[in-house]
Amino acid sequence: MRRLEYTIGRCQTLIQVFKTFLRKLGNIVPKKKPQYLKDKQAQAEKSSPAVRTPASGESVSKPKQKPRPPAPKLDQGTPGPQPVSQVWTLKEFEVPEIEGRVRFHDFDLPEPVMHAIYDLGFQYCTPIQAEILPSTLKGKDASGRAQTGTGKTAAFIITAITRLLREPSTDKAHKGAPLVLVLAPTRELVMQIGEEARQLAKYADLDIVTVFGGMDFDRQRKQLAQSRSHIVVATPGRLLDFKRQGDVRLDRVQMLVIDEADRMLDMGFIPDVRKIIYATPHKTKRQTMLFSATLTLEVTRLAAQWTTDPITVEIEPQQVAVDTIEQLVYVVTREEKYALLYNIITKKNLERVIVFCNRKDETRRLADLFTRYRIDCAVLSGDVRQRTRISTLNDFKGGKIRILVATDVAGRGIHIEGMDHVINYTLPRDPQDYVHRIGRTGRAGAAGTSISFADEEDSFVIPAIEALLGHKLPCLQPQEEWLAPPPPPPHLKRKSKSIDLAPQGPSGSRRRKRGKRPPRPRGRREREGPVSK
Q1: Hey, which of 100, 105, 389, 522 has its CA 20 to 30 A from 345?
Q2: 3-state secondary structure of 475
Q3: Is the pTM value of this prediction over 0.90?
């Protein structure tokens, strides 16, 4: 039986092969028309009129076609509207002369720089800009005492851009070899300087690169490799990392800026700064500017080592603190602090506030309390990752975050327009940090308010702060309504709480709570009773 099935299968295979062969053969040999098709074609030819076939050599005349009407001519006498290219000129930036005020027009700055200043809305120089720009624009070195918010950043950035535009490098810009190098102690300050440099170099063909720790190392290396690096703003540690690996060359630096030198000393960055400076050209072949909030003996020695016959500009810290910022000190106990903070923010309806603390655990605790009251709040401390810091600052600037709780190190370099209030939840131990804190508001001559809480531990710092400022601080007892305990925080709805907090299984359904196990199904013996033997 198996042999018969095998034989039948072989025959079917041969038949399929033969059919395929015939199909291919039919495609090669043309098929003859059947007789009925021939008869049908002959009948059609007899019924149709005869068509004359031209003889050989006779030309065939084509039927005449009617000429097409000419296309209508377009009216070219009235041209359409053409785009008008608007070129900005210095005539659009007119600032009246005022006695005792210095205009940016008085320095004969390049037009791209003046255009950027016009866009930023600047008209008159701040005191430090008016004193330092006449010398730095001529290539002289400078050392200045000025805290943040006085306009010193714009002073050295305007000098750097003007120098690069007026004295372009003879050879092509090398990648990873900056012409202007700015050193700053913190990441936030580096980002602030870089952002201000990009705004002032908006109409100049210059590349600005920021280099700091806490971000992707390879990504910053790629930026250095792809850009011409006219201006590099960096923290000392990360810049040395790139220098050791050969990604940065410092032998072409024409201008060196060291910002917040006193903070560099406090944070132990001076050895790294020395290594960086030794890799740059000699101080007689570069322009150097050094800025510090305080010109201590150590800072003065550093300025003498790194600069050549610098001009010294001093802006007193109390000018900003006294003239533009209202300072209040509330004497409270430690237990009354949070109630006072909550009532000040809610009853005064403060929209953008920075609350400073001395410890990182305090920042987290305050942020948790504000979050329970559904107040948009974020933390800015040394434990926060750099990407989170950047997004937090952007949200705070954009108004998405109402309260920013920060420490001193993280708070340095925060530059936000339109911030009216700074609250010191705990007073700093260093009086100079107090000046930096309140400098977050009242920037560049704007009005602001600083509120400080002084409890049993913080009160002893007030005399040192008053000695630095040169006047007494108003110490007040808060009203009883300001010390009223906050209402209970709003609770989450039960439904949303169970959805958010209940663990999810692989199928997406919530896990059953303990103690509510369904009854076990009874067996056959339990349902039918005992079986009789």
Answers
A1: 389
A2: strand
A3: no
